[in-house]
Structures are given as C-alpha cells and as structure tokens.
Amino acid sequence: MLRRMVQNNGGSLWERLTAFGHPLGRFLWGADASVALGDLAHGSSLGAGLEEVCGRSVLVATRDQLTAALALIELDGIARRLVLLPPDLPVAHVPSIMATAGVDAVVSDRGAAEIGVPNAGCLVSCSPRVTPGDRDRSARYQTEWILLTSGTTGLPKLVLHNLSTLAGAIKGANNLGSPVVWSTFYDIRRYGGLQIFLRALFGGGSLVLSSAEESTADFLTRAGSCGVTHISGTPSHWRHALMSPSARRLSPRYIRLSGEIADQMILDTLRTFYPKTTVAHAFASTEAGVVFDVVDGLAGFPASFIWNGDVDVEMKVENGSLRVRSKRTAVRYLGSPDQGLVSNDGFVDTGDMLELRRDRYYFVGRTGGIINVGGLKVHPEEVEAVINSLPNVRMSLVKARKSPITGAIVVADVVLQAETDLDDVSPAGKAVKIEILETCRRALAPHKVPAAIRFVPSLEIGASGKLTRL
Amino acid sequence: MSVRSAIISQFELVAGEQNKELALLSDDLVLLDSGLDSLCFAIIVARLEDVLGRDPFSYDDAVDFPVTLRDFIRFYEDAAAHGAK
C-alpha cells in the first residue's frame, strides 16, 4: 500500500494531545460514561488493531459523542480519511456519502444495517470503554477530515479539512496553571463542536460532552458537577439554558457564543447572570473556518477587524456579505466539482450579510434569505411551495421574524385567490389558516412551519420577476 | 383578555399544534418541565407579541429569564407596566 508522507503539520491528534506529557488527570465525560485520556496511552476503544483501518477512508458512525471522540483520537494519523457522521443524518443519505468519500471501512458501535450500510466491507467495532493493550500510535498519514454541512435541503455537502485547517485558530496550551474543563452544547461531529473538542485536547484540558438524550437541566447539572470552566453554544442554546434553574450550577470563567447572531440582549443577559465570566462571541463556519472572536461584550464586531484583523485571516465585504481567506478555510468540497468552495481570488463567501453602523459591523442575515431557526436552516421557497399548493392560495412570501428564543422563526404572508374574499379574523379566514398550517405540518419539519400567517392583498415583485425579499 | 389567560391559552394552543404533552399549568411549573421545547416557546412569544402588543424579551436591557410559569406571567405583566410609563 502506498503511504502518504506525514507532513509537518504539528503532529497527529494523539501527538498534540500528549505534547505536554502524559494526559494524567484529563477526562472525557459523556452522559453515561467517562474515560481518562491517559488510558489511551496503553489501551484502545476499538475492537480491532489500528492496522485494520490504516490508510483507509473510515466512516465514524457512533451512537454517542464519547465513542466518536475516542475513535477520532485513535484514528487521526492512522486513517487516510475520516468521515464524521452527524447524529441526525437521515439513514437514506449514508450510502451516497460513503460513495462520495470512497469509504472502505466503518468504525461503529452499531450493526451495519442499523447505520444504513449493509455492505460495509471492513466493519470495526468501537465502544466508550478503553481496553488495555499497546498500540503503535505513530502517525502515518495527514488524515483528511470530512465534515457534513448542516440543515439544508437534500444531501449535505462534504467539506474536506485536515487537522491544520481545523486547529488553525487554537493557540497552544493553557498556561494559566488551573485546569481547563471545556463543555459544549454542540455535537462534536459537526464543525462547532469539533472546535471545542480540539480546544480541550490541545489546550491540556478535559471535556464534558452533551447528549441528545439528556435534558438541558441534567446536562447543566452534570457540567456543573464536573467543574466546567469554559463552555460554548449558540445564543439559542443559552436562551434555553437560562430558563433552567440548573443554569445556576455552572460558574464558568469563559462562555463562547457562535453559530448564530449574538445580539446585545443575550450578551448582556449572560454577563448579568454570570458576572465573573468572560462572554465572547465567535464567527466561524464549516467552510470558512474560525474567523474571529469578539471579547468586548458588544454585538457585531469592530470594522477594524476587516482590514486589521488576525494575521492568519483576511476579510472583505463584497455585495454586503463577508468574504474570508485564511489557512483555516476548508480545502475543498468533496464530490461537488461544480461547487467551488473558494472564488478565484481565494476568498470564501460566508453568505452572512453585514451592515456597517458607525465603526462596527453587524450581522443582519443570510444571503439568499435562508432563515436560521435555532441553528436549523429553512429555505423560504420550500415552505412557500407547500403553502402555494393549496387551492385557495395565489402566492406567498415566507420570511424570518426575529425571535428572542430561537433567533428567528418562520412567518408567512399569503395572498389568497381573487375570488376568495377572506380576512384574518373571520371564521372562514381562520379555517383557511388552519388548513395552511395543517398542510405545512404534514409536509415539513416543525421548525419550517410558519408560526404566524397573515393575509395580504399583494406581494411586491421585483424587476427580475421574483418576489422581493427584504 | 388578561395577560394570564392569554399566556395560558397560547401554551395550550401551541402544545396541541406541536403534539406536545403539556404539564399541569401551575404557577410553580418550571418552564423547561412544561413539555414544550424551544420552538414552542419561540412561537408562543411571537404570538403573544401579536395578542398583547409587546415582547419583553426584545427590550434592550439585560433580563432575568423566567424560570417558572409565574415568572413568565410576571415578565409580561411587568412589561405592561413598563410600557405604561
């Protein structure tokens, strides 16, 4: 087998994890089990030797995050490629993703049929337990990491990174002396959570992993009992968490917001709730990588970031959207030759629209009008198509309405057929609204169903013949 | 319609729409134990803004997020007083 030379990229995940000596006293805590990182020095969570998966393109498909975390630590530098299967991915998408990524081995705590890969070929079991036994952990590959984009309609895109691009924003170990215990509301099998996983490992800390099966209250209680010092999540995560009495169980030194627009209210509320905590908000995306952190407690970011930011990151604003060129951007899309990840000048269009007010830029939404409901994307056109399918409806405009809970919610303006003379409050009008809502509920995920419907006499159409979307 | 009855009505309506099993709506009910998720609360807050004409979550000042149903109702009642000033 041809072996690709390991490039000088700072070492494999295991090498960087152990760069400051034996990881004594460092842990990964899951909802149901925990593992001392030091146990991996002379043990493994995999049901086969590393040579079984060496040089292969490996799909990591696990039930829980702890099992995935252990597998990733063991496989980076050993596998040629790692494909991280997010927990909420429909099983029907798995064969296509495997084909695109050339997967020839699966590491899982489930059976092949359960994952949706009846012909998995090389299937290696894994578990959240470390069994004693020595492993040669010397890196043999600069492993490619394949992350899936989230939430859009149809197949997710496969985004190719490596450890250098993923960890480009992580500045060495914690030198403060006191132990750092990270946690995140995110799942580490997506970009935002993976960042925190790597920060914990490379910063000499431990990590408390969340679980989809665990209530917010239980997660907060567990995080508090593990002594979490640093924690990340979206503004929506925090708006939800602050409604739990268990939020008082935490006393973090650092809170990091990302994934959605951090408005001034959530920043101020967190600072009031946790007065001794540094509240930062970060901007990153799977494709663009980590772009910047804002630590001044204010929404938006200083305009000076654009021309005077991080030495590793160049930014510009073009047609209102933020463009980024950096060593942290993904290498390319996998299997989408028609979709360029970067433009000819090497910049990634983040699709996030900016508005300059005085000396600060503020995020105002997404290009293309994609609505972000608590981290889940909604394409307005998809919802409009469902509403427009009803005989009483002539046309509709689906748009975002600001929500303090989920950042945004979906609402719809509906133009009824000319012969349908109804208003919002009449019994017949209410019946049509109920019919629209029931049709949407049958056809769409809950976050895509409009929270409110308004009848309007007309909708503005632009010169291009398209609905005017503000 | 009083603030309280508008809120209770929306809790019941949205729970029904979202197929959520709503806990008994006592004043001491912890909101996160109500059976409603974030999306439900987002819909409730949006509709209450339409019904009551106010969204106290959107005020510029930092707010204490309501933990119980009593807090939630008081949050809106205080907003009414705030708006009347």
Number of domains of chain A: 2
* Total helical segments of chain B: 3
SSE ordering of chain B: HHH
Helix content of chain B: 40-55%
Number of domains of chain B: 1
Shape verdict of chain A:
globular
Strand count of chain B: 0
Compute the average pLDDT of chain A.
88
Let me know the largest β-sheet of chain A: 8 strands, mixed
The fraction of residues in strands of chain A falls at 25-35%
Structural class of chain B: mainly alpha
* Outline type of chain B: globular
Q: Please give the CATH architecture of chain B.
A: Orthogonal Bundle
Report the CATH C-level class of chain B.
Mainly Alpha
Question: Could you describe the 3D structure shown?
Answer:
The complex is a heterodimer of chains A (470) and B (85). Chain A is α/β, with parallel strands linked by helices. Helix content of chain A is 21%, strand content 29%. Chain A contains twelve helices and 26 strands. In chain A, a hairpin with a 2-residue loop joins strand 17 and strand 18. In chain A, the strands form five sheets. Chain A has an eight-stranded mixed sheet with strand order 2-1-11-10-12-13-14-15. In chain A, strands 3-7-6-4-5-8-9-19 form an eight-stranded mixed sheet, with helices on both faces. Chain A has a five-stranded antiparallel sheet with strand order 16-21-20-18-17. Chain A folds into two domains: 342 residues, Rossmann fold, CATH 3.40.50; 86 residues, ANL, C-terminal domain (GMP Synthetase, Chain A, domain 3). With 85 residues, chain B is mainly alpha-helical. Chain B has a single domain, classed as Non-ribosomal Peptide Synthetase Peptidyl Carrier Protein, Chain A. Chains A and B meet through helix 8, helix 9 and strand 24 of A and helix 2 of B.
Provide tags for this entry.
heterodimer, A: 470 residues, alpha/beta, Rossmann fold, GMP Synthetase, Chain A, domain 3, 2 domains, 8-stranded mixed beta sheet, 12 helices, 26 strands, disordered N terminus, B: 85 residues, mainly alpha, Non-ribosomal Peptide Synthetase Peptidyl Carrier Protein, Chain A, 3 helices
